[in-house]
Amino acid sequence: MMLDGNLPDRVNDVQVLEGIMTTGLERVESCFSQIHRKYYEDADSPVFDHLNSDHMATLLYFLFDLGNYLGLHVGNQNNGIDG
User: Fold this and answer.
1) What is the pTM of this model?
2) How confident is the model at residue 7 (pLDDT cuts 50, 70, 90)?
3) How far apart are CA 66 and CA 23, in angstroms?
């Protein structure tokens, strides 16, 4: 119910959304495992911090990219945005 109000994307299948989130986090982990800098690793393991805007931007990019690849379109199709 909360998803319908905040993400009116006509995708109500929780399994699809969970799959996209799992895959997105796996892609973030793969990406961050190659970055050997503070805030991206802890004891040689990749770290994701939802409070870090760079981390969230990366996750959101991967989620949008995967959703677009799967043909999921967010919002109203008549919003004036081509694509």
Assistant:
1) 0.69
2) low
3) 8
Euclidean distance between CA atoms 64 and 7, whole angstroms: 13
Residue 66 CB partners (closer than 8 Å, separation 6+): 20, 23, 24, 27
Q: Quick one: average pLDDT of 46-75? A: 87
Q: How would you classify residue 20: left for phi > 0, otherwise alpha for psi between -120 and 50, otherwise beta? A: alpha
Q: State residue 46 phi and psi, 5-degree precision.
A: -65, 145
CB hemisphere CA count around 1 (13 angstroms): 0
Buried b / exposed e across 35-57, counting CB within 10 Å, b at 16+? eeeeebeeeeebeeeeeeeebee
